[in-house]
Amino acid sequence: MYTISRFSQLCKMSARMLRHYDKEELLKPVHVDTTNGYRYYEKSQLEMALWIKKLKEYRFSLPEIRTILQTSDRDSVTGLMHSKIRELSYEMNQYKQIIAEMQELIEFKVDLISGKRRSYDILLGMRNEVNVLSQRVQMNINNMDEYIDSLYEKAEESNIHLLGVPSAIFFDEEYTPDHSDIELMIEIVQGNDEDASCDWEIKTLPQKFVATTLHIGSYDDIGYAHMALEEWIDSNGYILNGPPYETYLKGSECDCPVEEYVTQVCFPIINKSKTIIA
């Protein structure tokens, strides 16, 4: 048998890591001396240690490694490998996009200290009274597409004729991606309360004066559009007259690159002078 020190030399793992794997029940020593707590390993465990090390290189988590070690079904392991390949491929594409953006910043000599600030055209207009199919839910923001698809399905089941693309109002005071408070809305031809259910409702949005702008690209950067609208209304004598909302004119459903996404950001506003009571 090998002491933990010698075994760590053979498998090129620290003794600290081996103790952690013991605690996680991935690689337990064959014997622990009850008098001094020394751990001992057998030669046959070296292959297991090297396999664990390789799986870590493949970016498997400890729970995933435990699953692989505990199964004797080759097809199951193959399935986990394919899943990890897809996950790594997705990450690789994200890294490629990040690298491309960084190279673009360098190429176009953007101010790398203050960062890139987009410019937005602000438009004013009247949003007419409109009927919408609405659902307010607590959700993981990454699952928003699924909830939107579900709302479309509910409309079809209830024979509700949809007119527009989805919009969303975000009610959280701070960014809480795992548990976001969001109201999803889709414009409809007409409807009444009898069509509503416990999951969704039909409501009428009143006529509002709005300031809007278009954001082209990833949702990660949409904060720039909100900032542009906030600065514009503040410097032009307006205040908010309702919660801002986003309308997704072109998104993931179009099967296009994120650089081509088009989102309309709308701020209902009112002139400050109209709020002053004479």
What does this structure look like?
- There is one protein chain.
- The protein has helices at 4-11, 15-23, 45-57, 62-70, 74-107, 144-157, 223-235, 272-275, and strands spanning 2-3, 31-32, 39-41, 123-127, 130-139, 162-170, 180-188, 201-205, 208-216, 238-240, 245-250, 262-271.
- The longest helix has 34 residues, at 74-107.
- The chain is 37% helix and 26% strand.
- Strands 4, 5, 6, 7, 8, 9, 10, 11 and 12 form a nine-stranded antiparallel β-sheet that branches. Strands 1-3-2 form a three-stranded antiparallel β-sheet, covered by helices on one side.
- With 278 residues, the chain is α+β, with helices and mostly antiparallel strands.
- The termini are far apart.
- The mean pLDDT is 89.
